[in-house]
Design a protein that fits this description.
Layout (H helix, E strand, L loop, with lengths): L9 E2 L16 E5 L6 H17 L2 E9 L8 H12 L5 E8 L2 H12 L3 E5 H12 L7 H9 L2 E5 L3
Parallel strand pairs: 2-3, 2-5, 3-4, 5-6
Antiparallel strand pairs: 1-6
Length: 159
């Protein structure tokens, strides 16, 4: 997948924070996915795994189960679906978060985990753009997320 611009197969700056002396340089990659895994979720998951392997990083696979449309997804179901798609990865954590808004719940999880990289689908970027356009004119979603999360944002298209 190319990393040549917003909306392409994957896009992001490749600048990672350098930790201060005495602080672990462990990298954490967070990837929000739908359950069951959609075509877009499979694409973002594959890219997140490639980044995690390349960076020798931990990987958190996040699914947001909406209060108003709960499917009662379990960690075991999510893990089974992900491992069927990408195989087992030793340093992966599966997280199910309940929330009213997918975008807000993702931001909360990424901030709480102090993630270094978040991998999101281009469709998710479109949803964030729609939500933020109610507040800002022509929001730059990648810049907004980088500023709010202090991490690298990678966008992936399934096309």
């Amino acid at each position: 997948m190319s990393r040549d611009g917003f909306g392409s197969s994957a896009a992001s700056s490749e600048t990672f924070r350098t930790p201060p002396d005495g602080v672990s340089d462990m990298t954490l990659v967070v990837v929000p996915v739908r359950y069951p895994l959609s075509k877009h979720s499979r694409a973002t998951l594959s890219e997140a795994l490639a980044i995690a392997e390349d960076r020798d990083a931990d990987l958190t696979v996040l699914h947001v189960d909406l209060y108003q449309d709960s499917r009662g997804v379990t960690r075991a179901e999510l893990k089974r679906a992900v491992e069927t798609e990408i195989g087992a990865y030793d340093r992966v954590r599966y997280v199910i978060r309940r929330g009213f808004l997918v975008e807000e719940t993702i931001l909360d999880e990424v901030a709480a985990e102090d993630a270094d990289v978040v991998v999101i689908g281009s469709k998710q970027v479109g949803r964030w753009r729609s939500a933020l356009s109610r507040i800002f004119d022509e929001p730059d979603i990648e810049t907004f997320l980088r500023e709010k999360l202090d991490c690298t944002v990678v966008t992936v298209s399934a096309d």
